[in-house]
Amino acid sequence: MVFTDPCFGIYKYLAISYFCVPSGIREYLLNDGTVIHIHSANYGRTDSSMCSTGRPPAQLAKIDCYALNSQTVVASGCEGKSSCSILASNSVFSDPCFGTFKYLYISYSCVSKCKCYCTEQ
Question: Domain SUEL-type lectin: where (predicted)?
């Protein structure tokens, strides 16, 4: 497989998850719409220009700001659902960096919701 470089100059990695279906098992998939799959999430600030309009520079300077519960909160509210809403606020995620203007970044995809039926052969 060949991949393009989506972010020049930034370290990248490839994570692959798989499982082996024992021989003699056949999967039957029934498509039933799409649902949200959360790849990553962060409430905080990792970029000084994102959501910066009208903000004083002091509120944008800290760019290593991560709420440690971001992935858990977003996944519990959105994973496997057809739609969701998460409030981007300190009351939901706590305040990972006092005095910094924060935003919620979510990387997600919409995937087929399917029911898998396996039968021995």
Answer: 33-111
